Amino acid sequence: MSEPGERCGATAVFWPDDEACEAECILPPGHDPADVHEDEILGQWSEDELPTRHPAA
Ligand SMILES: [Zn+2]
Fold first, then answer.
1. Looking at the predicted structure, is the pLDDT value of residue 2 above 70?
2. Distance from residue 17's CA to the centre of ligand 1 (Å)
3. Ligand 1 centroid from CA 37, angstroms
4. Which of 1, 6, 13, 22 is least surrounded by Cβ atoms within 10 Å, i.e. has the fewest?
5. How many Å lie between the centroid of ligand 1 and the Cα of residue 45?
6. Mean pLDDT, the chain, integer
7. In the prediction, which pLDDT does 3 show?
């Protein structure tokens, strides 16, 4: 079982307007599908759409 509060933590840069917005995945580690992440404000993104950085395991 994963620790409470543990997150995937993958990040991507959104461009909702003219400014970059950093998104951070709030889903639990090992979520499925693994290439679709979700930020609590910016919403979901797919690794196909945005370059995604993963935290060091
Ligand atoms: Zn994620």
1. no
2. 23
3. 4
4. 1
5. 9
6. 90
7. 62
Q: Where along the chain do its domains lie? A: 11-53
Q: How far apart are CA 16 and CA 35, in angstroms?
A: 20
Distance 18 CA to ligand 1 centre (A): 25
Give, in order, the Cα–Cα distances in Å from 29 to each of 10, 16, 17: 9, 26, 29
Long-range contacts of 37-44 (CB under 8 A, 24+ apart): 37/8, 37/10, 37/12, 39/14, 42/14, 42/16
Over residues 27-53, the pLDDT tens digits come to: 999 999 999 999 999 999 999 999 999
What residues have CB less than 8 Å from 1, skipping those under 6 apart?
A: none
